[in-house]
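Aim 2 progress update. The chain analyzed this quarter is reproduced below.
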Amino acid sequence: MRPKDAVGRDRLIQATIDLFHKRSPGKLTLGDIAKFARVDPKLLRYYFGDKNALFTAAVTQMLGEMQATVEAQLHNEGPIAERIRKRVRSLLQTLYANPHLHPLIVEQIMHGDREAGRQALKFMAARGYAVTRKLIEDGLERGELREVDPRFLHVAVVGLCEYFVTAKPLVQELFGGRPVSMEMTEAYADFVADLLFRGLRAPESQLIPTR
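Predicted structure tokens:
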């Protein structure tokens, strides 16, 4: 039976996402989330059953919002170098703003055993890969890029971006204790974009990446 509370399922998911920005998800309990959302814990159990189901729903919503940005990149027809830069910057900015997102994706979506998580993984893989594949196809058509397996490239882009955020203590140590800021993140994005473009560029191409 639904507890007597006006708060709906969507609001509880959003409250969970908001709390992810403040606390490490691994340390959160249903009680913590209920207190933050100002609801009875029974309401969370009514809608989701347990914490893992709630986290899966929250991560799925976050992925949906991230994929909306990815969708827009499918229609980008600009220079290949700039499209690579935008792709990397977009992913890094999302991870910077949501530092717990990728660990949650790994735990709840990639290694979770729920059907909702499996469907979210399929959606995430299909849309992200579509952008990478189109970028390579357009680059080949223009003679700007050499032929590579876009699946490997997609994994490489995600890995290069994700590790910068999850390995923040290492990055700070390398930079003498300097905090990882958005300015540093954008500088890293430009570095990765240039690295990728130069590695993907067709041998005959003389195109210089724009800044």
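The chain has two domains: 1-49, 58-200. The mean pLDDT is 86. These observations will guide the mutagenesis experiments scheduled for the next reporting period.
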